[in-house]
Predict the structure.
Amino acid sequence: MNQFEITLQGLNNYELATINFPCDQDEAAKAICIVSEYGQHDFEIVSYDSDFDVEHLNVTLLNEIAEMPQAKYEAFISFCNAGLDYKEAANNVMYYEYRVFENAEDMSDVAYQLLQDDVAFQEAPSFMRIHFDYDSYGETLTASGDYYEDTENRRIVQLF
């Protein structure tokens, strides 16, 4: 389970309330009632303690993120670090197929990892495998697919 917290502040009453995720809907509703007047959307997120940016409060989605298995959460963080907002990143992890390339600094590392699993490439003569241009193949992969680069965690995620 992935835990994080978000602090809200009322725009009119300046009250503060913190929501710890995962949470139930009642806890979130109580925090919103503290900072908001009559349930209006008159509050803002003033701080968050999470691995990703939280610009908008979506309690249901944030709970789903908090309850993600660790492997999915790591892919989610990689999508966020690659520039997607948390809603798009969660959508990619929950509804699309993807592949995570660990210890990948650039697309040549992805090319190398892909070809290590390729039976035809492994059956090629050793001199060809040794002198193969992984950089060029990595550029070709970039042009032909959706890859998201997480330089902070040395991961590249391919979205299918």
